[in-house]
């Protein structure tokens, strides 16, 4: 009785596991041990096992099964001799029951040690982080590819997701979305968010499909792995780097970039639906990123998550070019400037060096080129100074300035 009370005190937050453990302990310590009692705790296993760490320890799991079956068989064989054959083997029954008891104690201890301690309910509501389905079998690479294709499907044919959203509305109970293939998710907007997304898709015009970028996907992989291992859920990485820094590790970008994040959902269609709904966001940044016509390139990656079980990262970019190369708009600006300047007989002017110490000795003329980049709705101004050096162009980045265009 004391053990059952202590288990209730320690595991009360995880009600299913608590009931399983109390039932198992009650039966293991019973004076009478019959096989039908085992069904009292075995019925909890379909719920307990998927969220147990034993899912990732197949050898230990198999050994536990063998121990339970083998010791039970030895005990029941002794009981059969007594009850059906009339053999006086009380000592043997006592020894075999001790063996079976020891095996059960080992099994109980193993379940306690490998329990994830994830409560099913949180503040009186279903905890969306409680994992009632195993996810080790997820192919994250294939899932990312499926998400990329589904994004292009809805960009080019927005009406294709109207029926999917309509079917999904039946899975709501109050504000909890209970899709049979996903974890229960408590939403902010409830079913109304789905209806709003449907109305949006009815008015949304098709936009061009995204071109797949391996470099953007690699940046997504880095962020997904970082978020998953640290249990984070932000656009900023654990090292303090943002979206631009992650992308520029692999490739240079031009014009604008953006990032969408999704957690908990593990099927491509549901993830894309969630991006369209953009639950709880007044500005609908994720929806706007998904349907932004200026984005040409895209990348996606998925990974396991310490808290939400799975996370998805989607990156978008207007323009891309290899590291070390100048963007097309700068190259075109330089070429136009050279053509205009070549028609003039300009002599070298060392006077440039009076106001600009960086100006080379053979500077013929100087031009300022201003560019704009947008990161997650935030505009950054880039100023570059171009020196004309006897047909040789030298670029010197001066500074970055930025001001907020959209709230983030």
Secondary-structure blueprint:
Blueprint: H1 2-11, H2 15-28, H3 39-42, H4 45-48, H5 58-83, H6 90-113, E1 121-122, E2 125-126, H7 140-156, H8 162-168, E3 172-173, E4 176-177, E5 185-186, H9 191-203, E6 211-212, H10 214-230, H11 243-247, E7 252-263, H12 268-277, H13 285-291, E8 297-305, E9 309-321, H14 328-342, H15 352-355, E10 365-375, E11 378-389, E12 392-404
Helix pairs in contact: 1-2, 2-6, 5-6, 7-12, 8-9
Q: What's a concise summary of this model?
A:
The protein is an alpha+beta fold. It has 15 helices and 12 strands. It has helices spanning 2-11, 15-28, 39-42, 45-48, 58-83, 90-113, 140-156, 162-168, 191-203, 214-230, 243-247, 268-277, 285-291, 328-342, 352-355, and strands spanning 121-122, 125-126, 172-173, 176-177, 185-186, 211-212, 252-263, 297-305, 309-321, 365-375, 378-389, 392-404.
The radius of gyration is 32 Å
> Looking across the biggest beta sheet, what order are the strands in?
6-8-9-7-10-11-12
Main β-sheet, in a few words? 7 strands, mixed
The gross shape turns out to be: elongated
Terminus-to-terminus distance: 55 Å
Helix/strand-derived category reads alpha+beta
Strand element count? 12
Q: Which stretches are low in confidence, meaning pLDDT under 50 for 5 or more residues running?
A: 132-136, 345-349, 391-408
**Share of helix among residues?**
40-55%
Q: Give me the strand/helix succession.
A: HHHHHHEEHHEEEHEHHEHHEEHHEEE
Average predicted confidence as pLDDT = 81
Count of alpha and pi helical runs: 15
Q: In percent, how much strand structure appears in the residues?
A: 15-25%
């Amino acid at each position: 009785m004391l053990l059952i009370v202590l288990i209730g005190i320690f595991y009360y937050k995880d009600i299913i596991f608590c009931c399983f453990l109390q039932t198992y302990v009650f039966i293991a310590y019973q004076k009478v041990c019959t096989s039908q009692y085992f069904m009292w705790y075995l019925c909890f296993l379909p719920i307990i096992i998927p969220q147990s760490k034993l899912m990732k320890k197949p050898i230990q799991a198999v050994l536990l099964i063998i121990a339970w079956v083998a010791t039970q068989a030895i005990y029941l064989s002794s009981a059969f001799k007594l009850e059906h054959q009339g053999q006086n083997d009380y000592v043997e029954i006592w020894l075999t029951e001790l063996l079976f008891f020891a095996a059960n104690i080992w099994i109980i201890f193993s379940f306690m040690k490998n329990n994830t301690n994830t409560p099913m309910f949180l503040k009186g509501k279903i905890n969306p982080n409680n994992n009632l389905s195993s996810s080790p079998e997820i192919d994250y690479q294939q899932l990312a590819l499926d998400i990329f294709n589904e994004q292009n499907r809805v960009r080019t044919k927005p009406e294709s997701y109207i029926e999917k959203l309509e079917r999904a509305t039946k899975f709501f109970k109050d504000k909890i979305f209970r899709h049979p293939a996903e974890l229960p998710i408590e939403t902010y907007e409830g079913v109304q968010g789905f209806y709003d997304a449907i109305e949006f898709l009815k008015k949304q015009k098709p936009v061009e499909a995204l071109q797949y970028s391996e470099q953007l996907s690699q940046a997504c992989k880095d962020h997904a792995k970082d978020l998953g291992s640290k249990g984070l859920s932000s656009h900023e990485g654990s090292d303090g780097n943002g979206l631009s820094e992650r992308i520029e590790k692999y490739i240079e970008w031009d014009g604008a970039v953006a990032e969408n994040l999704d957690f908990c959902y593990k099927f491509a269609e549901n993830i894309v639906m969630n991006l369209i709904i953009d639950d709880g966001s007044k500005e609908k940044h994720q929806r706007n990123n998904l349907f932004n016509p200026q984005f040409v390139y895209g990348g996606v990656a998925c990974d396991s998550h310490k808290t939400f079980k799975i996370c998805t990262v989607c990156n978008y970019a207007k323009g891309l070019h290899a590291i070390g190369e100048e963007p097309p708009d700068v190259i075109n600006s330089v070429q136009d400037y050279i053509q205009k300047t070549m028609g003039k007989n300009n002599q070298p002017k060392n006077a440039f060096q009076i106001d600009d110490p960086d100006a080379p000795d053979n500077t013929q003329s100087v031009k300022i080129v201003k560019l704009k980049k947008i990161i997650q709705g935030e505009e950054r101004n880039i100023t570059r100074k171009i020196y004309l050096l006897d047909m040789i162009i030298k670029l010197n980045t001066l500074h970055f300035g930025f001001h907020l265009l959209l709230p983030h």
